[in-house]
Amino acid sequence: MLTAEQLNYIRDLLNKELAEIEERNREKVGEMESMRNDSETFHGDEADQANFMEERNRQLRMRDRDRKLINKIRETLHKIDIGEYGICESCGCDIDFERLKLRPVASLCIECKKEAEEREERERFSR
User: Do residues 78 and 117 both lie within one domain?
Assistant: First the structure.
């Protein structure tokens, strides 16, 4: 069971990470708006156009990844608020504080995470 001090430490980590991601996304939105405006007047050759589209797609993927992480952070903060944080979703055991410091959004203890990764690896090879 995590102490109040440990929970506050994790909450602070999560809030800082959330603020950083949201700021990065604001910057990305500005860049994408600029790219959209540039694309309306873009007259490069096919290679330039391909590079432009690849960069745009990369930014969209990064933004989608950030959106998913934002949702996960918010879910984790909610778990802290309702007293369900730090409990493995698979086995119900407490997740070690050292693991949570390194991966605050972790929802599985290290043993269950290893088992899940091994299962995914076996499934990947069996296809």
Answer: no
In this structure, are 90 and 80 located in the same domain?
Answer: no
Task: Please tell me the predicted confidence (pLDDT) of residue 23.
Answer: 92
Please determine, for residue 40, whether its predicted confidence score (pLDDT) is greater than 80: no
What single DSSP character describes residue 108?
S
| CATH code of the domain in which 25 resides | 1.20.120.910
Whole-number CA gyration radius for the chain? 20
Q: Which two tokens stand for residue 126?
A: 């069996």
Contacts of 67 (CB under 8 A, 6+ apart): 25
Q: How far apart are CA 112 and CA 26, in angstroms?
A: 36
Q: How many domains does the chain have?
A: 2
Q: Would the pTM count as exceeding 0.90?
A: no
Sign of the torsion formed by the C-alpha atoms of 45, 51, 56 and 61:
positive
Hey, how many other C-beta atoms are within 10 angstroms of the C-beta on 112? Answer: 18
Q: Which of 73, 82, 79 is nearest to 104 (CA)?
A: 73
